[in-house]
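Just wondering, does anyone understand what follows?

——
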Amino acid sequence: MVATAALLVRLAAAHPVDGAVATTQGKLAARAGDHPLAAACYAAACLASPDDMVLRVRLSRSLRGAGRPADAVAVLRGVPSSEPQALAERA
């Protein structure tokens, strides 16, 4: 896992706007319980893919885990009501 994390850090440095790298980093950080890092990674991924609602939900969860509930709710504002996962997160 450490080797994978180190590789992702190098990839992220080489490709700072690559949403796929940021998403993978966010997943690993979330699994490790590092919610602030996961939130930062998912925020970068959301910039690369602003219409990806799954990323917005992941960002919201990470922000909530990092103790930032107001920011978590704000991320989900504007998500279409046709996105049931986002609606459930807002509740």
Observations:
- Residues 38 and 63 are 8 Å apart (CA to CA).
- The radius of gyration is 13 Å.
- The chain has one domain: 2-90.
- The mean pLDDT is 81.
